[in-house]
Amino acid sequence: MKLKGFWRQNSTFVVLMVLLILLIPLGWITMGQKPFVRTVLSGLTLGALYLMVAAGLTLIFGLMDVLNFAHGAMFMIGAYAGWQFYTNPTFLFGLAPLVFALMTGLAATPLLRPLVIGWPVPEEWQRRLRTFLILLAIAVGVIGVLGLDLRDLAKTAMVSTMVAANPLAEATPQEPLARFWLRPTLLLIAGLLMALAQARPGDQTQIVHRAEQRRGWIALLALLALTVAAVLVREPAAIVVLKMNANWRFALALLVGMLIGGGIGAVMETSLVRPLYVRPFYLVIATSGLAFVLKEVVQFLWDPLPYQMERPPLFAQPGKADSILDWFSAQTTTVDILGVTFPSYRLFIIVLGIVMLLGLLGLMRYTRLGMIIRAGVQDREMVEALGINVRRVFTLVFAMGVGLAALGGIGAAPFIPVEPVMGDRFLMQGFITVVLGGMGSVSGAAVGALLLGLARAFGDYLALKFQLTPAISEASTVIIMAIVLLVRPSGLFGKKE
Amino acid sequence: MEMDQQPTTDILTVETIHTYIGQFHILEGVSLRVRRGGVTVLLGRNGAGKTTTLKSILGLTPPRQGQVILDGQEIQGKRAFEIAGLGIGYVPEHRAIFRDLSVAENLKIAERRKGDLERRADFIFDLFPDLKRLYKLPGHHLSGGQQQMLAVARALVADNKLLLIDEPSEGLAPVLIEQMMEAIRELSATTTVLLVEQNFIMASQLGEHYYIIDDGRTAHDGAMADLIHDTALIRRYLGASAARVGGEFAARSEQRRGG
Amino acid sequence: MNTTTSTSKTRVVTGRFAAWAQQQVGGLLLVIGLILFPFVFSWLYGSPVDSGPPKFWQGQLIVVFITAVYAMSYDLLMGYTGILSFGHAAFFGGGAYAMALFLAHVAPRIASSYRIVGPGGVNVTEIVLLVVGFLAALVVSLLLGLLFSAVSARVKGAYFAMVTLAMAEAIHILSKATDFVRWTGADEGLHGVPVPAWINPIQFRLRFYFVALAFAVVMYLVTRRIVHSPMGRVFVALRENESRARMIGYNPAVYRSLAFVTSAVVAGSAGALYALWTMSATPTMTGAGATVDALIMTILGGIGTLFGPMLGAALMELFGHFFYQWFGARWPLVFGVIFIALVMFLPYGIVGTWQQRSAQLRALLKRASQQRRQDPSDS
């Protein structure tokens, strides 16, 4: 009885795994040990990267029915953010006070609400007032950043790649604090104006929650402190980070890249995506338009050149370790695995992918948020009817999905060129992965990524063998997708409709 | 303290609400007053607007005009989760439980405060003993009747003063309908229930007060005891089979009175 | 009594006729204006028709005409049948590659061994070859349309969009694969396609201009005919309510494939003409960017209006031109921002919004006139 139930639930998974395991001896014998192991390993690396893109895509689609065409751009943004932070964080630290200041202002929304809903604003003027406030906020914000030399700030990392021997060699001249502090102040005001608009002056139909008030104060004060700190440490922080142990700096870069991605995701959901949920066609355009704009912005800041980020020293000592255990002490560039010399950094990517997958599965399985997401994938309306603020969950999931893509980007940065178009290919493969696995399913995305990664790696191997280009194997992954969809129209693990 | 002060006898007042779905004008002026305690029944044909009325109260399909007043507070125009948070439980039609979640998770997700489920577990398992046995199973393993019970149970986890229940008898076997009826009667002792029901037997036995919705308007209302005698009215709004049932009831209750 | 009804009837009839004529006149005026454009422009500018700015602007308009047909074919799919396909570039590029490959690799061989000269020394072979090339493009896009609809027959919604996207991407990758560099020129694309001399867009720009204009007008009329035919109504029914269309007895799969293939053929013919215009076929024509262009033009102009997407195509080309002059290399950035704003704040596109506004205005006028008519009776 229990076994039957298990089989009914997991038959696809079991069959696939058995098939893959059966294929191992076949590959081993026909290809020979070394090529086989190498191909499997590079397949796993690719699969891990695909997973990082696909996990967010599948969650965002499953819960919100949004095909996020900006996901590839987020992967790219993550790569740039991580690269900047690792190589020379001056740009990020220079920008942080402004972003934090704006956020501080916005965080005042719940606190302003009880004050302003009583304002005697006639109903027909409420909308106009809000529009006016937002326009004013934009104007103040623009004045706040006017004359800020973003491009020079952005170039700092490029310079330091050139003088890699001593990243501290050039102290980037920045605006003196005596003048700079005006900018965060203006942005704080812009944020407050926006918060005022969001608090909807005169609109008495809103509920004021006590708990929200207290939390609002805490958030506001914390952000204010963060802003002040960011203003003060704007210049020294970059130097502190650069003097840090490079491995820790890399770990921090992973975190920072993910957080930046998450922040962009949250902003994107609340501003761009939310008004368009009712018009899915437009959502496609808006997200692909955003991807386009982001690519252009990155080109503007860093030129369309490809950059190569250095690997952290943990994976950069010359030589080859004889085993993974050996690598822990030697920290070499390559590791010997079953007779194959394999870059140790790629092993790290595989591990990162697995850790991320386990974390995500745990989150979905054991937390209340995961429970709400799983319920929401099936029936959003009912979740809302239970008293859960689904909109906030949407924002959270969007931020999480984009954060994961950004994490993938910074993870990939040390071994693929960092360039504006780097996200496009991963977006494509991410979509195929999600379609293979079934939209809305995390485990489906994992299996899809595994299949697609292996297919790509073996395809490349075969293409090389028959003197074809890798392009053929890339195109042929589409055939796999077509076959799967002909058999199961909603992917391997998708819900049947 | 709060127990002592009894506000108005109406827990929910709906004042001529108009609701649109897309271009379609679904509700063209529905008005209701739901008294505190007991079961009020919404009757009407398929497509008359009963489900939309429930959804409009809850804010899932917000009304464009009219008022919805819960316990003296205007709630129209608020977001659905805010309205639900004020103490409304919703049991949608078609047994809409979360099929991928286990029974335990289906209940747990309805918690509004930590520990809600623990506090209410005894009450819930008293009403639906089956659920205790099925606690760990995923929702899609449940039979239709069990799913419906889970859907009702889910609305009981949080402290709700009003339950909106949409067609709990739909597609259930007669034995299960009996059981469901018993459960609703029991829980209406502690909360107020606004029930949409096509099954006239169930509706007439549970309800004390009724409203008939027809073509998006409140067509008629009164005490259920009067309705079952009015075969013509029933036939007009609810169809011949309901009228037959009503006639039988009337006859039976007459007999009972006679004997 | 009798006279009043008859006059009101004639008023209705004349009103309807006037409305019809007004609509047609608008279109006719536009076509006449476009026919006269090269001459008027060269007269205003004071330089000959076949050189300088007049020639340049003819070229711009040729691109507009071709992309307008391409955008319109996308509207047939998205606006009328409600199919969100991300593979449209495959049809456009497929048509372009079919034409270019035929002219570059097949046609010269045939032309060198056969040569038919018609009356007055007209080279009939070239004309025949061009027609055959066009037919080849149509057949290729037809086959692609069939392939796409066969693979995606069972999938719906977002899966459908993804499948079409992936298949188009596969074709894009193949079009730039170095394996076929001898035929396709891989990344570089196929350049210097030997276009028959009499339609060469560099030598006979004006002739090409009229060919492209005629092409756009004919394609518009054909597509409008399709949309208003019984088949077109089934397309719309599928968009509105698939299960109802199925219940009435139309097989959604069949009609979806029909819509797909029709749209593919129209897009393919536009691609073929585009290959003649650029005398090349490049991977950008099959890339996702080309699909996004179609999507943008359709949404900019207005979904489900046929003419809207054509207008959208014109605006896109002109914006592209002027933005490049104003903002230099950064123009895509400005364009992207403006475009996102348009999507957010102009949800029905230009033609759609205009139709809505004019409907509102008409309703307002009607109410006003009714009031005026009622007023005397009141007093």
Low-confidence stretches of chain B: 1-6
How much of the sequence lies in strands of chain A comes to under 5%
Beta-strand segment tally of chain B: 10
CA distance, first residue to last residue of chain A: 26 Å
Number of H- or I-type helical stretches of chain B: 11
CATH superfamily of the domain at 10-94 and 161-227 in chain B: P-loop containing nucleotide triphosphate hydrolases
Number of domains of chain A: 1
Structural class of chain A: mainly alpha
- What's the Cα radius of gyration of chain A? 25 Å
Let me know the average pLDDT of chain B: 80
Rg measurement of chain B, Å:
18 Å
Known CATH architecture of the domain at 10-94 and 161-227 in chain B: 3-Layer(aba) Sandwich
Mean pLDDT of chain A: 84
Strand order of the largest sheet of chain A: 1-2-3
| Poorly predicted residue ranges of chain A | none
Number of helical regions of chain A: 21
The topology string of helices and strands of chain A comes to HHHHHHHHHHHHHEHEEHHHHHHH
CATH class of the domain at 10-94 and 161-227 in chain B: Alpha Beta
Largest interface: A-C, 46 and 40 residues
Major sheet of chain A, described briefly?
A: 3 strands, mixed
User: What is the percent of helical residues of chain B?
Assistant: 25-40%
Describe this structure in words.
The complex is a heterotrimer of chains A (497), B (259) and C (379). Chain A has helices at residues 2-31, 33-64, 71-87, 90-106, 109-116, 123-145, 150-162, 177-180, 182-198, 210-232, 234-243, 246-273, 280-302, 324-330, 344-366, 368-378, 380-385, 390-412, 422-437, 442-465, 470-487; strands spanning 317-321, 332-337, 340-343. Chain A is mainly alpha-helical and 497 residues long. Chain A has one domain (20-316, 335-487). Chain A has a three-stranded mixed sheet with strand order 1-2-3. In chain A, a hairpin with a 2-residue loop joins β2 and β3 (340-343). Chain A is globular. The mean pLDDT of chain A is 84. Chain B is of the alpha/beta class. Chain B has a six-stranded mixed sheet with strand order 6-7-8-3-9-10, sandwiched between helices. A four-stranded antiparallel sheet of chain B has the order 2-1-4-5, covered by helices on one side. In chain B, α10 packs antiparallel against α11 (240-258). Chain B starts with 9 loop residues before the first strand and ends with a helix. The relative contact order of chain B is 0.16. Chain C has 379 residues and is mainly α. Chain C has one domain: ABC transporter involved in vitamin B12 uptake, BtuC. Chain C is built from 14 helices and no strands. In chain C, α3 (88-113) crosses α10 (252-278) and α11 (288-301) packs parallel to α14 (349-378). The longest helix of chain C has 44 residues, at 2-45. The relative contact order of chain C is 0.14. Classes of the chains: A mainly alpha (497), B alpha/beta (259), C mainly alpha (379). At the A-B interface, α16 and α17 of A face α2 of B.
